[in-house]
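Example with several molecule types.
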Amino acid sequence: MIDYVAILMLGLVGVAMCATVVALSVLFGPRNPSRWKGTAYESGSEPFGDARIRLDVKYYMIAISFIMFDVEAVFLLPWAVVAKDYGAYGFVVAMVFVTILVVGLVYEWQKGGLEWD
Amino acid sequence: MSSLITPIDIASTLPFIVLCLFGMVVLLLEVFQRQGQSRSYLAYVSAVGFATAAFSAWLLMGVEGQLVFHDMNYIDGFSKVTALLMCTAGAVTCLIAPRYLAELNADRGEFYALILFSAGGMIMMVSAADFIVFFMALELMSIAVYALAAYVRSSRVAAEAGFKYFLMGAFASAIMLYGIALVYGATGTTNLAAIGQLLSYGAASGSVDPALLLSKVSEQGALAGAAGYDTTTGDLLMLNYGSGTANMPLLYLGITLVIVSAVFKVGAVPFHMWLPDAYSGAPSPVGAFMASAVKAAAFASLLRLLALAFFDYELRMGPMGWVQVTFFLALLSMAIGNLVAIAQTSVKRMLAYSSIAHTGYMLVAITAMGYGVGDLDLGASVVFYLFAYVFGTVGAFGILAYLTRSRYYVERFSDLNGLGYRYPALGVAMTLFMLSSAGIPPTAGFIAKFQVFKAAVIAYGAGVEAGEPGALLLLALVVSGILFSVVGVYYYLKVIVHLYMRDPVREVTASDSGPARVGISVCAIATLVIGLFPGPLLNLSEQAMSQMEGRHDGVYVQYEDGAPIEDLQRLMREGSR
Amino acid sequence: MLSLPLSWYLMLSATLFVMGALGLLLRRNAIVAFMCVEVMLNAVNLTFIAFSKYHQDYTGQVFVFMVIAVAAAEAGIGLAMIVNMFRHKHSVQVDEATLLRH
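Resulting structure tokens for the full complex:
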């Protein structure tokens, strides 16, 4: 049971930090409300409405990048679980994997795939 | 820890590693170079990559065939010989590309990177010892080729062709995966050779040594439970688990799905609808690559799959055996491929349909290989045919890419009018490729067709000797194959007629591209030399088959309803004691 | 603990797979057709996991990792191709892709 105290602490610290940040900005932040700032996601899309609208092509570009780099977790997570057992050897192998991903990232970056416009 | 990667693992996958490294280097060179500068030097970089990979495959020739990477890969004669084939096709593709791409304003490094990655996938695929690696490599190959098919972004045709190709390919991959899942369910393993053994014992052949299976099972540890073989009771669970006997239909369904999707990838009738669009819609260099390397890889992996996992007598010759399937596919592919090719006005589409016909010829050899007793060495004719086919096809597509008519694809028959006199060397090369595809001596294609039909006749002889039913059908297949290749001569000769006997069209000119010339010459010389001196290549392809590791040679048992299964269980029980 | 028999999982995944396959063949919208491929792949994943549990063998689950990765790669290339096709035609209907029909 004592093991879970750490998790409890983590949760409490997390909540406290969030609350502090929000409270500070409420207390000290300047306020100039406008219609656009009032939307749910500033410069994002409306969260309510017909689901069958046509989305901007840029969203698909983001989706592509997201999918590519999202799935690496599938391979890194099992390694993380056994990382201690495999030691330096496992680390090197995982780094080979990450290096290949980085090559892809560098390519995308240089090609401008990470820019919104 | 016992799971360390050993130097031999690395060394044996060197061709793959080299190709992938070169692919990444090419990608980085592309992005760190200023826009607007010529990228055509990357063609040489990738050609060097292919040469290095081929050289490392050559160096590995001396290494004894074995399993590497925790039983995930084979390094054996088959994988090395086919790696040489893929590297050649890839290198020639890279050489014919730069001029063509520059003209379409698509001179970018990604093209070469994708070719390199795709070829890496092919090499991995034909050396796979496990469905996991097989599937990953298949996808590495396919996904790169999907992107290549839609590579010229300014072309609407390419965009459509690419998307259709992608959708069909993804569909086929999903079907293959489902098949693999069912086979895994029935056998408990994804290892090709283990599947072959287990299915064979499951299908009961009295002449196998149960002790061998037991040792295999205990040796591979996890397999013991996984294989569904209960060592305490000696029951083959795979025959009676789940809801009674329901798993046998599942197993057959799985095998059927795997084979169907493999056949889909090689483009045999009736699974060929995507192929003409994909080959003719894609840019010519990509068409060359798809028609040669991709098809060769698909065929080689089909050979490996059948030889390792699905070569049991019952699976081949039983009531639902795949020999009957390949028989009809071969017949249909030869018929439809050749007949529809006649009607084409576009050379590219003609080549696409002729490649369907070639698929048919190779399936004749695969049918022969699986027929009756089952002789895997007959598969050597497929390997030989692939070499002949690859040189002829890459060359022909290469010439189409080499010709230019102010930003239009050169692809109609009439575009070739009179070029034979204006460009004698080009005319001779194209003539050679067409003769080879038609199977006329003294070219490689002739020897290849001869080998394929010879294999079928040998299988016919063996079948008659063993009293197999329907051996005569095999002979009928050979006869129809020969008749259809005579039909095929018509449209191949049509190209030659246009080259030499029609008034020239002014707009079409040959481009001035050194690398393309080198690539096409290599193909032309290879076509001729293999035709004149087939000996070394015949040896090489025979070696490829005879040195295929883990191959499951057919066990010939004639048995009657149900009895052998009990027999096997008894034998296994005795063996386990 | 109560556990469902293997055949239930297999029936569910077979249903999903067939739904995906039919959708791919029948639906005309490129994005929907593409989603159907994903449904098929996930049906396969379910089959693998069910068999993996049944055999007490991890190979099936390792295979699922690979399938997930490949599905992501396919999604990437597929979306890129749809975007590319849309730029040319301002439509994602598959049956409007008729340029190659001769």
